[in-house]
Amino acid sequence: MATTRSSRPTVYDVADRAGVSIATVSRVLRRPETVSPGATRRVLDAVRDLGYVPSGSARGLAARRSGAIGVAFPAFDDVAEIDPVPLSDVPATMRLDPAEAAEPVTNLYMGEVTRGVELEAWRHGLFATVAVARGERRDAALEDLAGRVDGLVVLAGTTPPEVLVRVARSTPVVVVASPRGEDPLDHVRTANGPGMRALVEHLLDHHGLRDVAFVGGVADVPDDLERFAGFGEALASRGLPVPAAPLLRGDFTEERGRALARGLVDAGRVPEALVCSNDQTALGVVDVLQRAGVRVPGDVVVTGFDGIDAAGRSRPRLTTVHQPMAELGRVAVDVLLRRLADPAAPLEDRVLPVQVLLRESCGCLRA
Amino acid sequence: MATTRSSRPTVYDVADRAGVSIATVSRVLRRPETVSPGATRRVLDAVRDLGYVPSGSARGLAARRSGAIGVAFPAFDDVAEIDPVPLSDVPATMRLDPAEAAEPVTNLYMGEVTRGVELEAWRHGLFATVAVARGERRDAALEDLAGRVDGLVVLAGTTPPEVLVRVARSTPVVVVASPRGEDPLDHVRTANGPGMRALVEHLLDHHGLRDVAFVGGVADVPDDLERFAGFGEALASRGLPVPAAPLLRGDFTEERGRALARGLVDAGRVPEALVCSNDQTALGVVDVLQRAGVRVPGDVVVTGFDGIDAAGRSRPRLTTVHQPMAELGRVAVDVLLRRLADPAAPLEDRVLPVQVLLRESCGCLRA
DNA sequence: CCGGTGGATGTATGCGCATACATTCACGGC
DNA sequence: GCCGTGAATGTATGCGCATACATCCACCGG
């Protein structure tokens, strides 16, 4: 006994039932002050009786704007696409869970940025349509999305720049979290470099460290490059030698961080400080060091970057640089709306401030 | 030098440029096999040259389906709506961060469910449009959303049931995470009761506990009710007295969990086990107990529910019941598509399995 | 008592696309 | 050499709404 109607009622149905023209129906819904009380009343009754809901497509077509903003992410979770939907009736299983969970931070990132976009869109009466560009259909899907929204917020790495630029010819595009290149697009990002620089200068000045090493993430990722650059600037500003490359390179995962730390311990050459390119890596590093009997921050200082929840719950709590993920989404929408309002305005490159969180893993606070 | 065109090119522009009719343009894009190679070629060239992207609104209108699925959440973050967009140029600030972070799990929940919905939608060539129903515009926005999608996934608590039922007259609605009531809607939820029951039976049977107390969350929330019911069933099945109400009642936050634990410690009557209705609360409880010198699980066993990341990172790691949040979204979409395919099919009430994670806080594993 | 005025409502049209139907044309069979 | 056939393409229409413009009518001033 599902109650879904075979076909949705339209303005015409409402108009018939209310004994008015479709124009009056439309007016009651969009500009009520121009319609007499009587007609308004009858129309609203008809709307209620029929369960009428205006078609977004028709409205969008007539208004020449969809009322939605698109958010596109790179395929963080390509793998997850495999699992079939479980239809098991088993209500509860049980298992010993000794494993160290390694929740992908990317999920969190996606969720937070989406939240920011949705919030800012809401404030302007818009909706947010999200898509994770995966596999083959990747670029085609982005164009499809572009066709159904008023503007796009695209995370760096979602699609090749040339596709973005092409799409941008018809739909404004704001790129999140990558530095302005030569593309004619608006950008929003965080102060990766300055954040890392401030953190490292703190280690040098406040804790008097000198033997400071960088543990990178995936090579050539803009964020990683900027962080390493900030690291170098800090050293240079204090007259210390600047390495050409990170001491170690991971892939932003906790597991990889563990492996790297294991290598250091085995080789017996752990520096005074391990400055990691992200929190996940740092958490893995800390875990392995502690198991190997190396005290953090007693024997070695470890820091992260991102400011994820887990970094504030570890022992020791991780000193890190917090970047405002949801804020990225909000500001991206702000930039998008400005672009919509004035297509000829100069390109924007907004850099959001970060905050260095001094906690236990650098020795600033006691556990 | 922004490159956004003043108005998007249409099929007509493409047809003109390619020297064909709009029908041929449309065919090249939708059914390429019906068009000659020559025409196809010219059309694609024109599309590229003009940066043409089909209008989603027009397509939706003509096709009588939008190609999008709506996801609506209750207003977890009403408060956050206040902050203005920061336009600060300060790239990095610094602060000592002694506070215990209390990341709202609701954000995570929203992100995960959205992820599931988006993934399943993607597999069917659909997009996901999300909206958090806040404040005054709440119900109106839900209808607006309904008008622009082919189906809705609505989380319990987003809007009053009567609004849902009304909307469902024109757009299929699947309700997530609340038990089937009298509404003529499809439902998808997790096995809250059985999960909690299994966990508590484990505490009774395996750890031989008897003085087991329940720490609830917000009253009258379906999930909380079901969990408390499962708690009671476990006790009853072992011939123990079943309390009529939770020993304590929090609000699902970590902070509130702390306050409750403080009360117990001060009163000097801490039970053998504190079974919490969610992880956040349990984390707060554990923190305060430990600071008060009460050992967990040595002196008192504490358990949670939800299986959030933080529960696997605390010391001791929390024994809890993991519920598949992303899976909720995926299955909801699955149910939605079935409903779309057959409006007359019997109503569904899918219950997803949960998994009890036995870790350190119940004593199953050593820290 | 008539033209003017403004509020309420109706009529007609366009938004951009998909597609049913019509048309054209090349080709093969008779 | 004519007609049937089918592939390729064009023409016309509808999808559901917003809105410019036309119409109607009650009411006012002169």
From TrEMBL, chains A, B:
SUPFAM superfamilies: lambda repressor-like DNA-binding domains, Periplasmic binding protein-like I. Keywords: DNA-binding, Repressor, Transcription, Transcription regulation. Residues 9-63 form the HTH lacI-type domain. One of its GO terms (molecular function) is DNA binding. Transmembrane segments: none annotated. Signal peptide: none annotated. It comes from the Bacteria. This is LacI family DNA-binding transcriptional regulator. It comes from Pseudokineococcus basanitobsidens. The lineage of its organism: Bacteria, Bacillati, Actinomycetota, Actinomycetes, Kineosporiales.
